[in-house]
Amino acid sequence: MSDTESAARDPEELPEEIREEVPAWDDEYFDRVGDRLMYSYDLERDYAVRGHSFALYGELRMESQKQFLHPALNYADHETREHVFARRAGEPTVADLRALVDLGHDLADDWIDADEEHYETNFTFVLVADSLSDAVQSFVSGFRDRTLLKYGYYGCYEVNLVVVAPDDENGVASQEADVLQAFALWGDVERPDEGFFSRFAKRFWN
Question: Where do the domains of the chain lie?
């Protein structure tokens, strides 16, 4: 399901037991973002890791396998995860973004079990800003940081960046950061046609 499709759905469509697991934020903006992300992500609030604090944390897990004639005869099991971290940041700087990139690499060292079943892990950091400077927009729009594990034999991980300024109805995302749509509450944001989910599906289900 795309972020656009999730955003259009009514949270009341979900079973009550699932809705009860979605945290409530003392922040209307994050409450609305949570309503968009809860269809695909396990969400937490007030999340802290390695000295960094985030108002919202979300984890998405996807597993795929290929089958030969019968479901019991499966092979090529692969796992993909995305971790989303979001917080308010006032007037973020490029130095702030570089610190988050470093955090992403540290978390990759801590969290990824690099083996044949690992396909891809994404660490996406979202800053909710009062406004976007030209330097931040330029840095984020041109950013991509992908690391192969054991020359790709153990998959890869990617660090993504998103900065949004809701009051200005403005946002920018790095090249592979598909989650921008969920944070752009003011309307659709133009993104590349092929995103994370479609790339993943093409790799394993075609």
Answer: 47-205
